[in-house]
Amino acid sequence: MAASGEPGRPWQEEEAAAVVVVGSCMTDLVSLTSRLPKTGETIHGHEFFIGFGGKGANQCVQAARLGAKAAIVCKVGNDSFGNDYIENLKQNHISTEFTYQTRDAATGTASIIVNNEGQNIIVIVAGANLLLNSEDLKKAASVISRAKVMICQLEISPAASLEALTMARRSGVKTLFNPAPAMADLDPQFYTLSSIFCCNESEVQTTHFGSPQSEGLHPCPQLSYMLVFIIVLPLQGAGDSFVGALAFYLAYYPNLSLEEMLKRSNFIAAVSVQATGTQSSYPYKKDLPLALF
Ligand SMILES: *[C@@H]1O[C@H](CO)[C@@H](O)[C@H](O)[C@H]1NC(C)=O
Ligand SMILES: *[C@@H]1O[C@H](CO)[C@@H](O)[C@H](O)[C@H]1NC(C)=O
Ligand SMILES: *[C@@H]1O[C@H](CO)[C@@H](O)[C@H](O)[C@H]1NC(C)=O
To answer: Which residues belong to any copy of the Carbohydrate kinase PfkB domain (predicted)?
Structure first.
């Protein structure tokens, strides 16, 4: 299968998407200030910007920029942030056929205040993301079942993620599950439904496998998953760049060894942390060494 998605060359939606994300979109509202405000205090910041975030969309954007035919199944509000988000997805040549808009909640937002030392306070209102439901997934069944790889995270309702993973596995689609943000009482079905369970250090500590007596990790032998440990600097969006890149390799270079896919994905995430912002830092295929493709 040839990867098309060079910037400026959209793929035709009649073709099956190779990478499908069932996940979140969040609008980041970022204020830069000299210090963090105290309770009840109003302070002046020196810069404000709006960014596109949400783990689902981030991972999808990275896969698309590497050339994957990608689609996202997600829900935003019927508001200006939602409209802008859909435009952003289109600009990244991601199919928005199953990007739903609802009147019942606002587009997910992350309000972020960052001081000069880089310390931050963040409030996430998941909003429309939590309304992605079973009916929405059923409408998207054909795009999920024809994919090579489906990615899920935990910024939509766990029930919706579980249903999407079940649908994918039933159709023989590889599932890449990123248990983020970490959840202590993760439903054990997430382990059996994941072809690859991909988490970072803090996420592994929060889930079952980080029990103090375990030396690192030893996945239960009766479960059919692989566990991938990622240790990246916790910089904005690097983990999502890694997961998106891994989905790209799983979909387009299935014959590479997992080790090689991890090396290449790690390289791409390392490139992303050298630029500013989240999605704005994700590299395109044209900016990367040919040896990665
Ligand atoms: C979104 O809002 C517009 C008007 O602002 C309306 O025409 C449209 O039907 C709404 N769509 C949904 C899905 O609610
Ligand atoms: C793991 O990822 C989460 C975001 O999902 C991040 O907040 C956290 O800092 C990361 N932890 C490490 C050790 O990289
Ligand atoms: C992967 O390997 C199989 C058998 O070794 C081969 O039939 C297939 O064409 C290869 N796929 C790709 C994408 O190279």
So the answer is: 18-205, 237-283
Quick check: 16 and 143 in contact, CB under 8 A? yes
What is the C-alpha separation between 155 and 26, in angstroms, rounded? Answer: 10
Q: Mean pLDDT over residues 249-265, rounded?
A: 94
Please give the Cα distance from 43 to 52 (Å, whole number).
Answer: 25
Greater pLDDT, 249 or 277: 249
What one-letter code names the amino acid at 144?
A: I
Mutate to test the pocket of ligand 3, among 255, 256, 257, 293 (most ligand atoms within 8 A of CB): 255
Query: Can you state the angle between helices 80-91 and 55-65, rounded to 10 degrees?
Result: 20
From the number of C-beta atoms within 10 Å of its C-beta (0-12, 13-18, 19+), residue 192 rates as middle
pLDDT at 183: 84
Contact 220, 197 (CB under 8 A): no
Residue 158 CB coordination number (10 Å): 16
Alpha helices in the chain (DSSP H): 55-65, 80-91, 134-139, 141-145, 158-170, 189-193, 201-206, 238-252, 258-272
Cα 272 to ligand 3 centre (Å): 30
- Cα 175 from Cα 187, distance rounded (Å): 16
Tokens 């079905």 belong to 189
Q: Would you say 28 and 278 are in contact if contact means Cβ atoms under 8 Å apart? A: yes
Closest ligand (CA of 249): 3
